[in-house]
Please model this.
Amino acid sequence: MHVPIDDNVLVGLATADDAGVYKISEDLALIQTVDFFTPVIDDPYSFGRIAAANALSDVYAMGGVPKTAMNIVGYPMANLGKQSLREILQGGIDTLKQADTVLLGGHSVEDAELKYGLSVTGFVHPLKILTNQGLNDGDGLILTKPLGTGIINTAIKAGLAKPETIRRVTELMSTLNRRASEILQEFPLSACTDVTGFGLLGHLAEMITNTTSGAVIETAKVPVLKEAVEFASIGFVPAGAHTNRRHREKMLVLTENFDPVLRDILCDPQTSGGLLAGCPEKKVSLAVERLRNEGIEAACIGYVREDAKNKIYLR
Ligand code: CO
Ligand code: CO
Ligand code: CO
Model:
């Protein structure tokens, strides 16, 4: 695919990053991203919150500050009526408010299947952009939200999740990556992305794929929703988790008898997942402590290793 670029394109299509970045001046660049999807949960207001938190996340992952947003709506008006749409949009607006981001407009079309999301524009200093490239040997890998939302959403759709599980996962998916991003920016990060549809291992693979380095994941340290372990154990694993795993199978090095449930969780597609950042080894524990002190369920889940040569070791 040939796409036009000019000298002001700082991040384009080549590295499958979270958003595009376009330089306006020596001290300002625009981050642009768009995300929309079909409902992950039944409650319209919560769906709106989650969709907005998810759309905003790519700006935080690039080290930027979101400023403006536009709604994107596909809606079956005859089936669902106006009230649900109002609640979805209100959820989006309330989440944008938390992000100090203004809604400028949007577009809606009649659609057989409900879809909602936003395009978001953010600001960043051209020298402070975080991309998914740049991990250094020895960096600690920090993850800022527990994994398992895809598995739990599958269980919710099957009617198996308890109300408190639904509440917990809804809160988690609605939580902005704003504070996590602000805290992480106090540290000299080498790279950053957010964990979404490709799962932890898929997004980590994108970070190392153009490098000579690899990673070692200490799986016992990866924060995981305990209900996700329960549901994955009885087979509630979304098809996307298997697709993600097959896609990156050649990069994965598993210990003998590696728990297949844990492997599926590490590949589970996340909705509005946490940030995944590379941080110099000496600063990692302080960064994790700062995040945890503010109630963010962050952990150092492993390290970048030059001698791991494009592989991800799970131990
Ligand atoms: Co992203
Ligand atoms: Co995205
Ligand atoms: Co990025």
The two ends are 38 Å apart (CA to CA). The chain has ten helices and 13 strands. The first strand starts at residue 9 and ends at 11.
